[in-house]
Write a structure and sequence with these properties.
By secondary structure, the protein is α+β, with helices and mostly antiparallel strands. The radius of gyration is 14 Å and the shape is globular. The chain binds adenosine-3',5'-cyclic-monophosphate.
């Protein structure tokens, strides 16, 4: 068993499709062991995406991620990071496989509905950025 960190992004909360995304998560045998609906501050979003600070899309990304509610989640299961990346699909929905969250729901490469950690080490960092261990309930 391992964990990954997920964000359901503003394009999805605005369209009221968070339940559909959670169904796809649960259908893939991942368990949502923590989740909360929050509004990211500019500082919180910039800290989360610090690795992308020099990218041309950084400012647009921060504006988008602070434009509405997000749902931050901890997902648990076998090979959680890899499993979630598989069901999310490619970052750009044009390249995402049929049956993935981004193929079904994403609008474009930025408004791509979900974020998932890219490694176990980053999953731990990202989970700790939003959750206290006491908020993660796995039984
Ligand atoms: P995410 O997996 O959360 O990681 C960085 C985010 O930046 C990405 O999803 C998209 O929402 C956004 N983004 C916007 N443009 C690009 C791009 N050209 N390449 C990658 N990510 C992008």
């Amino acid at each position: 068993m391992s964990r990954t960190f997920s964000i359901i992004k503003p394009d999805a909360t605005k369209r009221n499709i968070t339940g559909s995304i959670n169904n796809m998560i649960e259908d893939s045998n991942l368990i949502i062991v923590a989740q909360k609906r929050i509004k990211l501050s500019k500082e919180k979003a910039e800290g989360f995406y610090a690795v992308h600070r020099d990218k041309p899309f950084f400012n647009d990304l921060i504006e988008y991620m602070t434009s509405g509610a997000v749902i931050v989640q901890v997902l648990q299961g076998e090979n959680a990071v890899e499993n979630y990346r598989k069901i999310m699909g490619a970052t750009n929905p044009d390249n995402a496989e049929e049956g993935t969250i981004r193929k079904k729901h994403a609008l474009n490469i930025q408004e791509n509905s979900v974020h998932g950690s890219d490694s176990d080490a980053n999953a731990e960092i990202e989970i700790n950025y939003f959750f206290d261990e006491s908020e993660i309930i796995n039984n």
